[in-house]
Each structure stands twice: as structure tokens, then as C-alpha cells.
Amino acid sequence: MKKILIVVIAVSLFGCKNPENESNRLKVVTTTTMITDLVKNIGGNLIDVEGLMGAGVDPHLYKASEGDVSKLYQANIIIYNGLHLEGKLVEVFEKMESQEKIQVPLAEALDKSNLIGSEYFASSFDPHVWFDISYFKQFAERVAEVLAENDPTNAEFYIKNKETYLQKLEALETEVKATIETLPKEKRILVTAHDAFNYFGKAYDFEVVGLQGLSTATEAGVQDVQRLSQFIIEKDVKAIFIESSVPRRTIEALQAAVLSKGHEVKIGGSLYSDALGDPDTVEGTYLGMFRYNVNTIVNELK
Ligand SMILES: [Zn+2]
């Protein structure tokens, strides 16, 4: 009898460790499309990833649906940006704490002394850190570490995927810097709907001005529009930019204000700020999004 029991225990233990066993696959829930793309690159086909937010979704305003809550309950790991980017999801995540889920706010692992301060967020920091590729590399390191810790059987696979992805990020960094070099320094002024590009500006030497402040939760006022239109005229800025996750009317109001002062500024197209493009398109990946943004900015400001 004892022998049978031991065999049963041994079989069930072996069963738990079997990577083929579907129920043992890590279930990871992610928030923004940037983070979903990253986790899929590192987890590959060995984990299940559910991204809560889709293309064009504004994370500052995003609220969890009932479907999201059930996905969160089923997850082993929740990976998100943090620094209060997902302002309305924080409460939901806090409720999950008693569920013993592993919560990974990626940006909170970055060295705080390198972050850009902001009074607009409860975290006191600007959360749009993914626009510095070197920070996104650190995100990749952290994701691989978390997956490897929680699924040691496949640790090597995750680490290998991370190395491959880091090489792509490095190539992207080199390419982006070379493209930006073609734009004279005095033309590197980026005017957009909200302040998503401060880290981009710091890393790649642009002056960045957002109409709406750091979070889209506050609307731009008439004064902001007047102040910024004056700035555009003084600096002779050629183009201003819409963002995929912010309504275009804010930037159109700014263009109208510049026109009313007898000057002209064009709308240089739409940039991806807080969300990637549609899935199954090149801009639906972090690498494609970054390349698209930089090419658009440089071509329009030339
Ligand atoms: Zn934002």
C-alpha cells in the first residue's frame, strides 16, 4: 500500500514538472501593447500572454473591464509599466495582492536618479520611460529574470530569447541615432499632444514640448495653446504631431492658433506614444513603432 502511495506521489510530482503539461504554462497578464510585445518576445510559445490594452488605447485613462478582472484572477504574473502610468488600474492590482500574484512594475526597477521628475503622477516620476531604448533593454532583462525565476525548467529558453531581442534593440539604437544625426540640432524640436516624449528628448537630444501635460487626464487650456503657438512661431517649427492614443483635436486647435497669428505649421502625421500600432503591422511591434516615429519626426522637421 505504502509503495503504491509513493508511486502516486512520484507520478503527480513528475506531472507538475512536465513542461508539456498545459496547466503548468505560466499565465502572464500585461497592460500596454509595448509590454505585451516585449513579454511575447521573451516568453515565446512557452507562456500564455494576455495583454489588457489594445492599439490606440490610452493607459492613463484605461479602466479594467469585467473580462480583464477575470484574466487577472487567472494569471500567475502581472507585468506592467508602473510609475502610475496605468493610473486607474493600480487599485485593481492592489486588490490582487491578497491573491499572492507576482506583480512586476517594470519601470520601478529602474534607477530613480535617472528618471525625470513630475508633479502630475502619484509616483512623482514621468512614466513614459520606454522611449529611451536603454530603459527598454532593462525592461527586457527584468522580464527574462522574472520568467526564469518562475519557470526554471525553461530558464535557458527565456534567457536566449532575451539575448536575441537585446541585439535587435541595440541595432535599433544605432539606426535611430544615425537617422537623428541627419537632422540639424536647431530643428530638433518636437511638439506633440501630450508630454510622452521627454525621455526620447533626453536620450536623443530633442527639445520636447507637449500641449497637454504629462497625463491625458487633464485637458489643455486656452492659455497652453496660446503659449505654445507663440513658441512655434518664435522657433520656426515646421511640423507638430498627433498621437495615436490622444484625440487629434488638441493638436488641431494648436495649428489653428498658429494660423490665426499669420504663420503656418503643418501636422506632421501621427506618432505612436502610449500604444503601438495595429497588431500584424510593423508598427504593432516596439521595434517597428520606434523606427516609424523617428523616421516620421526627422522627415517632417527637415
Ligand atoms: Zn502618456
Describe this structure as you would to a colleague.
- This protein is of the alpha/beta class.
- The longest helix is centred in the middle third of the chain and has 27 residues, at 155-181.
- It has helices at residues 2-17, 33-43, 66-74, 90-95, 133-150, 155-181, 198-204, 222-235, 249-260, 286-301, and strands at residues 26-30, 47-51, 77-80, 102-105, 189-192, 207-210, 239-243, 266-271.
- It is globular and about 65 Å long.
- The chain folds into 2 domains: 23-175, Nitrogenase molybdenum iron protein domain (Rossmann fold, 3-Layer(aba) Sandwich), CATH 3.40.50; 184-301, Nitrogenase molybdenum iron protein domain (Rossmann fold, 3-Layer(aba) Sandwich), CATH 3.40.50.
- It binds zinc ion.
- Belongs to the bacterial solute-binding protein 9 family.
- Residues 155-182 form a coiled coil.
